[in-house]
Specification:
By secondary structure, this protein is mainly α. Helix content is 75%, strand content 0%. It has nine helices and no strands. The longest helix is centred in the middle third of the chain and has 38 residues.
């Protein structure tokens, strides 16, 4: 029952946020296939950017974190950077899915997309939720972390210090 309620809330949020994009996508004339290709191409471009090194983090708040907290925050910052990088293409694809579902009545594509984009709960997510959101947002919007970056190398260098 809880999953059904959660799905309903996610679907409502998707529909509500998608309404803002309706004129953009409707006028763009995107087919579902075109939107799918674009989201895949943009995701590939963003993942290539994950090779971008970040040599050091000079931040008092970040420095005060434990090793586990730093790992979790770096994971979250990396996820947000990739999400930010792919946002426009993902929104267009989401709208194309909504449009197709409206035309065909088939909700499977939307359900799959929501499942793919739903947060994964785990230890890192629990740690991130316990930390001040404003600090994570601040770091996420900083020059180092705004765009995708090599989070694994940075994590390894910070943890080995």
């Amino acid at each position: 029952m809880e999953k059904k309620d959660s799905f309903g809330r996610v679907l409502k949020k998707l529909a509500a946020s998608s309404l803002l994009l309706l004129p953009l996508v409707a006028n763009a004339g995107y087919t579902l296939e075109q939107a799918f290709q674009e989201v895949n191409q943009q995701t590939a471009r963003c993942l290539k950017m994950k090779n971008r090194p970040v040599d050091a983090v000079q931040d008092t708040w970040f420095d005060s974190l434990s090793s586990d907290q730093k790992r979790a925050v770096l994971f979250e910052l990396s996820k947000r950077a990739v999400d930010r990088c792919t946002l426009e293409a993902r929104e267009k694809y989401s709208w194309a899915l909504v449009k197709q579902a409206g035309e065909t009545g088939d909700l499977e594509g939307i359900k799959d997309w929501i499942a793919l984009n739903s947060p994964i709960d785990g230890k890192a997510q629990t740690i991130v939720k316990s930390l001040p959101e404003e600090e994570i947002n601040r770091l996420s919007l900083s020059d180092h972390f705004y765009y995708p970056f090599d989070s694994m190398s940075l994590r390894d260098s910070l943890i080995s210090q």
